[in-house]
Amino acid sequence: MCINNEQLTPHFNRQEFKCCCEGRYCNGFPAEMNGELVGRLEAVRMMLDNPIIITSGVRCPVRNEEVGGISHSRHLFGAAADCYAPGLSVHALAAAAIAAGLGVIIYEDEGFCHLEI
């Protein structure tokens, strides 16, 4: 069992990955984050030497539908995170994520990357 404020890596806390429904539809963690994904995000953070802000981690099915996520979204299983790196382009973040072995979808107009394992 995970503790809500558990530090998962030196730079990422479990709360950063909490479902963004704000408790309307779930307890915040309908699934736990994939440890390999979190480890690779930490590697990206170290490569860039820059904070990475998680805007969407795990999602419950209702919230996933609300935000237009696909029915088999990796977010539902804790295997994806949407994020950005303040002061860096989405392309710089994407390049580091690819180097760390992550799948990447760039949302350039929105200013974030979808990263998945």
Automatic annotation (TrEMBL):
Regions annotated as coiled coil: none
Source organism, top-level taxon: Bacteria
Pfam family, one: Peptidase_M15_3
Record GO terms (molecular function): carboxypeptidase activity
Peptidase M15A C-terminal domain location: 10-115
UniProt keyword list: Carboxypeptidase, Hydrolase, Protease
Name of the protein: D-Ala-D-Ala carboxypeptidase family metallohydrolase
